[in-house]
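note to self — DONT lose this again. spent like an hour looking for the file last time. sequence + predicted structure for the chain T wanted, 182 res
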Amino acid sequence: MTSYPIHSIASAPEKSKAVLDQLKQTFGLIPNIAGAMANSPELIKAFIGLFQQVHAGTFTEAEIQTLLLTNAVTNSCAWAVAFHSMLALKEGLSPADVEAIRSRRLPADKRHAALSALARKLIETRGHVGEQDLAAFVEAGFRREQTLEILAVVAASAITNYAGTMTKPPLEEFLQRHAWQA
């Protein structure tokens, strides 16, 4: 059970309210994890700024969801795995590829497999990837500088994944069908 309140716009600290309002406009609701993160205005503001940058980068939304789902699984954050499973399916990832990532396997799609493999390696080795890891990413059709952009996605995921692990927000009803356990 969570020991952190799940804030609404009305109950949140004043400096967290604008971010919660922005998330409500984006998703039609305030995700429980954001309501928990709102306990710290500094955290919720850092989170929204970084996520805006991630979604304005060079990766497609399907590629971003591949990264975010991989990161959630690698960091063992059940709430984020459920949320990004839902969004990955919405962005067109096949159910088989979503299930592969959830099972710590690579998706069949070549580009998504390259993204997933490099993201997992970055997290597991804390950035100590080899030249062959980077070359495999480029061989899948990406540019070398995009390996650095993945770091922004990993950083954004770390905020959400670690906050979810610490605060243990309850899974919303609409996410129950995507529930996951490490």
